[in-house]
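Continuing the series of single-chain predictions for the mutant panel. This is the parent chain; the variants come on the following pages.
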Amino acid sequence: MTPRPATTAPALRAHRPDAPRELHLWALRPPTSEPPSVSELDAEERRRAAGFLRADARLVYLHAHIALRRLLSAYTGTAPALLRLRRAPCPYCGGPHGRPVLPGPLHFSLSHSHGLVLIGVAASPVGVDVQRVPDAATVELCLPRLHPAERHEVVGTPEDRRPRVFAELWSRKEAYLKGLGTGLGHGVGGEYLGLHANAGGHRAPDGWLVAGLHGCPDHVSAFAVEATTAHRAVLHELPDRIAELPRPAAAEAIAAAEPVLSMALPAPPVPTARPTPTHEE
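Parent structure:
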C-alpha cells in the first residue's frame, strides 16, 4: 500500500518579501526506547544504524532520522518513506559526500550528540551542529586546528570556562562547514568564526549568517544559513516520542508546535574582496 502524504506543517515564509527570511530549527530529546518501526528509513540509513556498536548511539540515530523524515514530510506533503534523501557533490572534489539534499527548494541539516537532536530547515543551504561540552584535554588537543585569532580568544578565557567557549566556537565552525557541504575534512582554521567576527579586522564568512543557540547546560549548538538578507531563526521542540506516534498524529504535532525561541539576524555585511582562505588537509 502506498503511504499517504502527511498533513503539511506551516510553510516557510521565505516567499514573503515583506518579512525576514526564516530558518526553522527543531530540537528533540529522543527517548531510550526502540522505535516501533524503521520502515520509513531507506536502506542506507538502516545500514548505518546497524553499524553503531553502542545501543544508545544507535537509538539516537534511529529516532533522529525518523524524526527528520517526518518533519520533512510535514513540510513537503510527501510520505516519510517516499522522501529521496541524497548527497550533493562535494564543492571541493565533486565526490558524492556533500550536504544531504532533498529534491526541490527545501534545504535541511541534522545533528545529534549524546541525547540531543537538532534539525534545521530553510529555503537556502543550512547547517546545524549540536555537541556536548568537551573536557579540558580535548580542548588542548583541538586548539592547534583553529584560526590563530580564535586560538587567542580561547586561551584568553578563564580556565574554568574554556571548554564551553571552545565548544561554542567549534559548533559554529561545524555548522558553517556542514552548510557548505565540506565537513571538517577540509580544515577548520581557514575561516574566522570567533567572538568578534565583524570587528577588529576579522570578518565572518561572506554570504553566511552564523550564530549559536544558548540555554542548554551540557550541550552547545549553532546554525549557519547562506544569506544576503536579514533572517529570523525560530526554534521549536519536537515531541520526544515523535518517532513512535502514528504518522498522522506526528504530522499534527509538528503543525501545532509553538515556537520556544525567536532570534532576529541582521543581514550580513556586503562582501568585500579578500584572499581566498586556505584549507588544512
